Amino acid sequence: MYDVAIAVDAPTNVIWAYGAKWPGKHVDKGAMLLAFSDTKDTRNVGSTSSYVVILGTIVASMATASLALRFSFSKAHHLFETTTDLSVGEGILVLLYLTGLVLVLALLPFYEANIVAFDRQVSLASGHLGLFHLSLLIVPVSHVGWWLNLAQSRLLKFHKALSVVFLLCGGLHLAFSIKAYGAGIVWYRDPFGSQRVVPLFGFVALGCFLCVGVVAIPIIRLNLYELFLAIHRVLFVAGIVLVYLHSRTIQIALICPLVIYGIGGIFVRLPPFFKTYTVTTAITTSHTTMLTLPLTKHTQRWVTQYRLCSHAYVNVPAISATAWHPFTVMITPARDGIAFCIKSVKPHSFTHKVHVLSHLHDHLNVKLAGPYGQPTVDLTKYQQVVLVGGGIGVTPLLGAINFLDSHAHVKMHLCWVTMMFPLPHFVTAEFYVSLAISEGQIETDRGDVVRYSPGRPTADAILQRFQNIPRTVVLACGPEGMIVDAQREAYDRGFDFQKVVFAF
Description:
This protein is an alpha/beta fold. The protein folds into four domains: 1-41, no CATH class; 49-268, no CATH class; 272-372, Translation factors (Elongation Factor Tu (Ef-tu), domain 3, Beta Barrel), CATH 2.40.30; 379-499, Rossmann fold (3-Layer(aba) Sandwich), CATH 3.40.50. The chain is 39% helix and 19% strand. It is a multi-pass membrane protein. Its main location: membrane.
């Protein structure tokens, strides 16, 4: 045992060791540089500041979403550049996020470099920032999204961005923890420090989240969607449990987002597993299938409360008990049910199997989760609605046509690169054949003549004819390049804009 003199004006090197029994050898030992001062009160790392800020940010975001986002998109182009994808309400959410971020950094107990090593300070800061982003990214995917008044695809935009920042903070936290304490710290299973941190749990949790991030890469997610969804759900829950055990601060900070996520799981995610519907099948083309859910007592509210741009997850037990895929929800022309138009994209895929089953059966049993999402514009309040669609992207546009059938004051113009005929009398249409070199026409089975133009439509040519119509909105769904062009031209002309994307 040694006596160490304590100086109030300089850090003191304290040597420590402990054993589990007496007599016996030391179980662990080490040294720590401590600063004792009679003039300065250093804050404990385990203060409640971080999770109070997290809770406040979430509550403020929910309050903002329930108010500002209801008037969110119509004036966005006056506040942002034309290439932006943020509505006014979303911009407010971003400001709240940045405010919370600054507060977390400001409330962290940074010490002078000669008292606490720089590596430990970076480890501390990155850990708290990672916790802040983890807490926020849980909320958009809780499926308790009605208060956001946003389409699910727009909620996922925030989820993806927060996830990337969270993984970067987690990697930084791991790297500087190893640099500060040594590589063996990641396998340490005993709690230590004021927060009783268990490094092993945090290390394994980060591994789970990294695996989730890898399968979310677009090339993997879009080609192996079922694998992505299974790994995403299982490892995300496993990572949450492990990171919850990592630190006492995390346990308190995650209470609010986990309660929201749990409510969504119990009341939104679980019920679809126990309800089966019977849909009628119809082969519309060599590659597309129409699944129609007739109007019943249970599904009547889906028709009466139909929301444009919404989607539902469809499960076909005859194909897989675990595969759930998102498809656009359409309302039928007679408003007597909802329908899903499904295109077979490649052999042996889920959509191809649905197409094959529809050839064999007139009816299929399905399970439905949803519908989720809603538009940020009210099409019934406009004088002119311009629909720009590409390929199967016309599906939500057809839903808009059927929905607006009872609103005679709304004039609609559809620009589509493929063909559907006949169309309602209140819809004007133009068709394009991408491989044609000149204008032409074809005759349908009904004897009607349909004219088409060569090439692909340009947003400028489509929208310039509506320049003098005051209340005009553009609704687009299709290839990314087409949507970007339509959005830019709509904003340049002062039109409101809504895009529909389902690239989950």
